[in-house]
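Quick illustration for those who missed Monday's session on complexes.
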Amino acid sequence: MGRLMTLTLARAGCTVEVFDAGGPGADGAAARVAAAMLAPLAESAIAPSMVVRMGHHALQRWPELLAPLAAPVFFQREGTLVLWHRQDAAEAARLSRVLARTAEQVPELPAMKPLDAQGIAALEPTLGTRFAHGLLLPDEGQLDNRQLLDALLATLQALPQVRMHWQAPRTLDDFKPGSSGQPERVIDCRGLGARPQWNTLRGVRGEVIRVHAPEVTLSRPTRLVHPRYPLYIAPKPDHLFVIGATEIESEDMSPASVRSTLELLSAAYSVHSGFAEARILEIATQCRPTLPDNLPAFHQPRDGVLQINGLYRHGFMIAPALLDIAMELLAAGHSSLAEHFGLAPQLNTDSP
Ligand SMILES: Cc1cc2nc3c(=O)[nH]c(=O)nc-3n(C[C@H](O)[C@H](O)[C@H](O)COP(=O)(O)OP(=O)(O)OC[C@H]3O[C@@H](n4cnc5c(N)ncnc54)[C@H](O)[C@@H]3O)c2cc1C
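Prediction with flavin-adenine dinucleotide bound:
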């Protein structure tokens, strides 16, 4: 969020100084670990229509945001494929009902398409006909988050009006916006790092495995309905796959458990046996910055300070909407876009 804000402000003519507790590789940011799926309808299984609408907005906005960057970023809109094993048909039926309800509430979303075994094989030939039923959520997308972070960094580094400070943690108390020698405004995009001043923030742990699987070809993010959690497999370029699922109400950043790793990899193998020969590149753990209602929020605790947080598990899916709202707030003090999304109650001027 911080890198997107910086670039947009710099392009709007501002001089921007960035203070990041981490380094240029974004180690320590949830953004580095994420799968970066842009799946508003799929996420409506757990997200309200406000988040779904913001996700739909992002699918149009990302190509505009990516086009001027200094390096290409993998972005696709081939849809999301939802699959289930026979024993999980009841859970799949429940999910289909939830998605159908979302489609009524957010009619601008393209309609989901039920698939039979042949339909699945036509979309993803390497899966064959092992799944009897599935769903295609058309036009949903994904991007390569690490390419995006690198491309934003390279673009920012080339701008003379941007100065970046690494390993430079800050708190709001370090700034007195508007006073002499101080910035005019402070934009706080510290994710979980903002908790000392936003005490309702919490971390929701996720574990993600990155594998290189030359024997597997999938053309779109694929989700497996599961009684405990929905597994996702997000294919990035060059047979790299990001496999994840877990959501644990914990701020424990310790390495992934054996149980989660076994479950994730077994579920992936049950989707495609080619994962058996995959090479595990990384098993990463991170916590998603989350507010009590699991929704994003803006806070303006005092003049000249704007905090953007609570991106939870939808940071890439909603960042373009939050960016556009933030720019409206900074320019005019209010945002018609926030009203359009129904986010207005989340615009708060009280101290969090
Ligand atoms: C396992 C997992 C999978 C995910 N999958 C998806 C997905 O498929 N789709 C999707 O849309 N989203 C996904 N997300 C969510 C997404 O990653 C987050 O919502 C998003 O990264 C939040 O962005 P942010 O900029 O608010 O915080 P972060 O990405 O955490 O960035 C915070 C930044 O603030 C810096 N910082 C922290 N403290 C300080 C300080 N005191 N001073 C200065 N700088 C500080 C950090 O160094 C970091 O650079 C996933 C997240 C996880 C963990």
